[in-house]
Each structure stands twice: as C-alpha cells, then as structure tokens.
Amino acid sequence: NAGVMQNPRHLVRRRGQEARLRCSPMKGHSHVYWYRQLPEEGLKFMVYLQKENIIDESGMPKERFSAEFPKEGPSILRIQQVVRGDSAAYFCASSPGAGVYEQYFGPGTRLTVT
Amino acid sequence: DQQVKQNSPSLSVQEGRISILNCDYTNSMFDYFLWYKKYPAEGPTFLISISSIKDKNEDGRFTVFLNKSAKHLSLHIVPSQPGDSAVYFCAASTYANSNSGYALNFGKGTSLLVTP
After folding, report:
1. B42: closest CA among A85, A44, A12, A110?
2. Residue A93 forms beta bridges with which residues?
3. pLDDT tens column, A33-88
4. Which of A57, A76, A112, B91 reaches 20 to 30 Å from B18, CA-CA?
5. Residue A1: what pLDDT?
6. Tens digits of residue pLDDT in A91-101
7. Disruptive mutation site among A55, A102, A104, A111 for chain B (greatest number of B CBs within 10 Å)
C-alpha cells in the first residue's frame, strides 16, 4: 500500500519562473492538504481539496499560488513568478475523510529559489 | 499568531527512561490533537491522536495526555529508544466547529535525542 507520493523531491527555480509540485494521495484517500514549512518553523496549512473542489484555501497567499485536484491525476500546487521567500519545504497530506481525522504526509518537495 | 506552542526546542533523554514532550494551545475551539514524528528530509509520520472528549490515549510505548482546563497536552514515550530521536510536532484542529474544517495547526516542534 503505497503512501502519499510527491514529486519532484527537490526543485530549483530562478526568480520569476513557475514551480509545479505534484501530490498523489494514498490509495482510497479523497482528501488532500498542502502545508508549507519554512526553516525553523512548524508546518503551516495552505489549502484543503477534495476531487475537483477547493474546500478551504484560507492559508494560501492571495497572489501567485493556486492548487487543484482534478478528477484524474495528482493534486498540483502551482507557484507563479517565484520569489526567494517561496523557498521552503512543501508537504502534501491525505486522509480518507468520512470522520477519519488523521492526515498522512508525503516526503515533501524542497523548493529552492535562486 | 502561534496557536499551538511547543516551548522546548530540544530534549535529551537516556535510553530506557521516559521522554515527556509538552504542548500548549490557546484556541479553546480545538477539539482534536495529534502528534507527529519527523526525521530530516522526510515527511511527518502520524504517531497518536486524542479527541477532546478524552483525557488519555495510549498506543504501545506512546501515551498522550490532555488537560483541557490548562489547554495543555503531553506525549510520553516509555521506554525511550535511540530510534525515537527525531523532531516531534504537536498539532490541533477544530473538526466540529469550524469553516476551516480539517486544517491542522502545528507547533514548531521539539527535537528529541535519546542517548544510549
């Protein structure tokens, strides 16, 4: 039973480029969450999605960031026109929903903006 | 605004002894609490959780205690093993009462070192 998969594991982008981070939830899980961890900080919630729906994006920066979870394929976190402050570890988590509250995390994507 | 606080950045314990990791929270609406363990360059791994209707939950060597009146929870690891050395994160959520639903609020973590 494969866990949550994220790719790429490491991503380097120059300022102004776009970053696309992918997340495949655990088998049977229909709820996906994205978190960001800055150095020396805890994880910060960004967005919560179900298939084809954004349920809660209260943690997403207002500009340049977007997320989707299409009917087919992985969830995508997209960062346009990256800046140095976007350098962080981005973690995806999934849960089966339906009253199960534990979230299971992927290994993360470490984004470095040069 | 840090709603979940882990005031000890690090903790060192001898193998075989008890490790106690502490966590405080400020939001009285939190009703579900979780502990995660994290190794460097890996994602957090779920350890144990507790609902606000309970004051204790136990799973093997791990026990979580919740004191709602003090807005405090703790994770006990007995006996501690060198493989337990990792960063431990406390997290909380407001499942029953929130339009932000399932978002987890994390503390900054406590780095546990278990020495042989």
Report:
1. A110
2. A33, A105
3. 999 999 888 899 999 999 889 988 999 998 999 999 999 999 999 999 999 999 99
4. B91
5. 53
6. 999 988 756 67
7. A102
The tokens describing A37, both together, are 């961890």
- Nearest C-alpha neighbor of B35 from the set B25, A79, A8: B25
Per 3-state DSSP, what percentage of chain B is helix, strand, and coil (rounded to 5)? Answer: 5, 50, 45
CA dist., res. B7 & res. B107, Å (int): 9
Amino acid at A31: H
φ, ψ for residue A86 (rounded to 5)? -80, -10
Q: B104 near A34, Cβ under 8 Å?
A: no
Q: CA separation (Å) from A81 to A17, A18, A39, A65, B41?
A: 5, 5, 21, 9, 25
